[in-house]
From TrEMBL:
Keyword terms, alphabetized: Signal
Protein family: Belongs to the bacterial solute-binding protein SsuA/TauA family.
Subcellular location field: Periplasm
Record's protein name: NitT/TauT family transport system substrate-binding protein
Amino acid sequence: MLLLGCSSDPEEEQQGGGGGGQGTETIALGIIPIIDVAPVYLGQEQGFFEDQGIELDLSAGQGGAAIVPGVASGSIDIGFGNNLSLVVAASNELPLQVLCSAVDSTGDPERDPFTIVTADPAITRPADLAGKTVATNTINAIGDTVVKASVRADGGDPNAVTFVELPFPNMAAALAAGDVDAAWLVEPFVTLAEGQGIRVLTTPLNDFTDVQVEVSTYFTSTAYAAENPELVERFTTAMVQSLNYAQENPDAVRAILPTYLDIPEEVAAKVRLPEWNTEVSQETFEMYTELPEAQGLLGGEVDLDTLLAQVN
C-alpha cells in the first residue's frame, strides 16, 4: 500500500506542543456521529487540541457527501468524509485538500465495522440483493457504491439494486418493519441492530478489492489551507496524536463512545472497532478512480495531485 505522510512534524507531535504563545483559535469541524470520529473526542479529552491552541466547534452531518459542500463553500473549516466523496468532488473540480487519514477498514471480514446487514433469511449472499431495496445514509456515495461492487463481485446484477436514503439510526427499524431488505450500516448501529435480530450479510470492503481500504480522511478547502497554513498544521498535529491514541487505547475508545453516541456501555463494549492509521493511502484514492461502480459519479478527470497536495 502506498502511504503518504500527514503534514505534521513528528518531533512536534511527540512534544505535544505547537500552539504555545498563540491565542486559542476555533475550527468549525464537520463530522458524522459514528464510532469513526472517536479520536476527535479523545483528542479533546486528552488536551491534544488545547495544546495546539485549538477549540473545535463540532457540527454533525449525515454523510461525507453532505459535509463536502460545506467545506467547499467555507461554512465548515475542516470536514470528516469518505474518500469516494472526495474523489467525486475532485472530479467536479471542487477545491479540496486532504489533511490526514481518519479511519481504515480492518481488512478482516470477521471484525470489520463497515457492513451490509439484513433481517431477511432468504438473503444469504450479496448477489441476492439484486431486485431488493437497500438503505444507505447518503445516495451516490460510499455506501451504495460499495454495495453494488459487492453484488457485482458475487456475480449479481448491481444495477438491479434499489437504494433509499435513511439516517443510520433509523435503519434497524426500517429493516424490522420490512420497509427495506438490507442496509449499508456502520458501528455502533451494527451492534445495536444485531441486538434486534438483524445479521451481518457481508463486509463489502473485503469483497471487491485486495486493498485495505482507507474509508475516510479529514480535509479542508484549498482556500482555507492557503489562508491558515499554521492553523491547519496545528490541527493536523493534534489529529495525528488523537488517531494514534485511539489506535493504542481501545478501552479508552469504548469508554468515550457513550459520551457522544446514544448507546449504553454494554453496547460500546461489543462494537467492532476500525483501524485508526495516520498515513493517507493513495492506493485507496486510485482504486476509487478505477472502480466500475464509481464511474457514473465522476464528473471528469480526478486530479489526485491537488487533492493530496498537503500529504505528498
